C-alpha cells in the first residue's frame, strides 16, 4: 500500500488538501502524466506512431480484461460510459412491447438512452427505499418482455453497493433480460466479482485514476451476438475498405463493435498507466486501507445533524458516503475554505475515500464539517 512518501511522490497535489472527491474526478498518479507525454512523443512520429498506439491499445485491453475477469477479446474501448450505453441501445434493437428496467439510484448514462422519445421500449423504474435497492422490489418488474436491466454496482448518488449475485439470480429466474452493470464508481476501488453481468461499462476518470475520454466495455463471449453494435464507422467493421464496402457494413461481433472510430489514444495511454498503477498497489490493498476510513467517516456522520443518504449497512458500502443538509452550499463553501474537497450537488454532499486518502483527511473533513454546522 502507499506509504506517506510514495503517496506524496505519486500524488504531489495531495500534499496540503483533503481530497475526498474521487467519485467525481480521480487524481492521476505521476505515471499517468508520463504516459500522456509518451503519447505526445509517439504522435510526433505521425503515421509511424500508429504501431505504438496499437500496442498501447492491446495492452490496455489486456489490463481491463484482468480487472473484469474476461479475456482481451471480450473488451472494447470507446470514449465514455454514455457512448457505450448508446451503442448498447443500438445493439439491442428494441421493439414496441419490449421493457427495460432502470433504477432511481443510477447515473443518467445508463438510465436515459431508453427514456428518449423514439425509444420503443417501456421503461420501468426499480425504486430505492431508504437509499437501498432491494432485490425483492425488482422481481415484480421482470417478465417475459424484459430485455434489459441496467444497474450501477455502486451508486453515484449515495454510494449504495448492490450485491450483484442476488440481482443476477432474480433477473435469470424471472426474465430473459440482459444485465448491464456500470462499474464506474467501483473499478479500482473495490474487488469486483462480475459473474453474471452481460455487459460491463466503466468511465476512466474516477477511481482508476486515469484521464477523461475512455469507456471500458466488457462483453462476455457468450453475449457477443446480443451486443453487436450496428453503427456506422470503420474501426469496428469486419471489412471497412474491401471491394464490397458500399454494399453492406458488417460489425465485428461483441466488444469490438463498441470501438466505432479511431480510438482516443491519449486516454488509452493514460488508462494503461493508471491500471498498471492500480494493479501494482492492488485493489484488495486499496480496499483494506480505505474501508476503515469510510467506516470512521460514517460513524461521525451518524452523530452529526445531517441527513445521511447512504444506507449504513457495511455490506453495501464501497467508497462513497452522501448526506443532505438545507445549508449544503454554505457547508461546502466552508469545507473548501479549509481545503477539504467534497462533491456538492443539489443539496447533497458526497464524500469519496480512495487508497490515497488517510485518516488525517477524514479528521480534517469532520473537524471542518463540525465547524461549519456550528457556525450556521
Ligand atoms: C455510475 C456512473 N457512470 C458513468 C459516469 C460518467 O459517464 P460518462 O463517462 O459518460 O461521462 C458517472 C459519473 O459520475 C457515474 O457515476
Describe the 3D structure.
The chain is 36% helix and 14% strand. The protein starts with a helix and ends with a helix. It has a 7-stranded mixed β-sheet with strand order 2-8-7-6-5-3-4, with helices on both faces. A 4-stranded antiparallel β-sheet has the order 9-10-13-12, covered by helices on one side. It has 11 helices and 13 strands. It is an alpha/beta fold. Strand 5, helix 7 and strand 6 form a beta-alpha-beta unit. The model has no long low-confidence stretch (mean pLDDT 98). Pyridoxal-5'-phosphate binds next to helix 4.
Radius of gyration: 21 Å
Order of helices and strands: HEHHEHEHEHEHEEEHHEEHEEEH
> What structural category arises from helix and sheet content?
alpha/beta
Helix content: 25-40%
The beta-strand count equals 13
Key descriptive features of the protein:
376 residues, alpha/beta, 7-stranded mixed beta sheet, 4-stranded antiparallel beta sheet, 11 helices, 36% helix, globular, binds pyridoxal-5'-phosphate
Summarize the structure.
Helices cover 36% and strands 14% of the residues.
Question: Secondary-structure map with pairings?
Answer:
Layout: H1 4-10, E1 18-19, H2 30-43, H3 49-68, E2 75-78, H4 81-92, E3 99-103, H5 108-111, E4 122-126, H6 135-138, E5 146-152, H7 164-174, E6 178-182, E7 199-203, E8 215-218, H8 265-281, H9 283-303, E9 307-308, E10 320-324, H10 328-337, E11 340-341, E12 343-345, E13 348-352, H11 359-375
Parallel strand pairs: 1-11, 3-4, 3-5, 5-6, 6-7
Antiparallel strand pairs: 2-8, 7-8, 9-10, 10-13, 12-13
Bound molecules: pyridoxal-5'-phosphate (PLP).
The site of pyridoxal-5'-phosphate has 11 residues, from helix 4.
